Amino acid sequence: MKKLLTLLILFGNITFLSAQERAYGDGEHFKFRVHYGFVTAGYATLKVKNSTLNGKDVFHVRGFGETVGVSKWFFKVEDDYQSYIDKEKNIPYRFIRKIDEGGYTKDVQIDFNHNSKKATVNDKKHNETTVFSFPEETQDMISAFYYLRNKVDTENLKEGDVVEINMFFDKENNKFRLKFLGKEILDTNFGRVRTLIFRPYVQSGRVFKEKESLTVWISDDKNKIPLLIQAELAVGSLKASLTEFKGLQHSFKILAK
């Protein structure tokens, strides 16, 4: 299943938290089952731990995804994404992308200088280094997930509202945009949970059927956990369901049956 972790991270970027209160911290861990109906295609995880980078206190976040079982025999995927995020400013200092998708490989490290607004891209596979400019408060694919959880106020969102952030990915500056669809009580692996529903705008043509082919359900609480992700792909409907979590900063509320 080719874009396993890339899809999951894009979906994960829909999680928000009201400003001034941190949604995550050291030890937070999510595990997702990625599946076509009852068939499991793979698993993906997101883990947070305290670290330092160039003398700065940061959160080191690692996202890892891989195909399993029959899917692995047909198309082996191992995707490793990492980000080093400033604890106070919520901006990335380093982004690592090391992937193997059916023999298609990348090994890239991006270092962000937010004073000069320059990103140094080190393509280790081709032994090439290039420098690009980026706008204010630019995020990488991983850091965007955590930035939005801390910065965007979901309490005042209205149905149809669109949120937009700057993202640097694959040597390009992009706008990541998503629309708030409303609220719903969702049956999950953990019980019935109040959720917020979002739909990101994604590039169509190569992976997705349409511009608006993704839907995400996140917990309507201070954690803003991605509970269910559904994507209409060119090869069928794909879902990612949260199966495990630990290290949450706030209580996780389950509704009585």
Automatic annotation (TrEMBL):
Matches recorded under Pfam families: DUF3108 (PF11306)
InterPro entries for this protein: DUF3108
Keyword line: Signal
Source organism superkingdom: Bacteria
Protein's UniProt keywords contain Signal: yes
Signal peptide bounds: 1-19
Origin species: Aequorivita sublithincola (strain DSM 14238 / LMG 21431 / ACAM 643 / 9-3)
Keyword Signal: yes
Protein name: ATP-dependent exonuclease
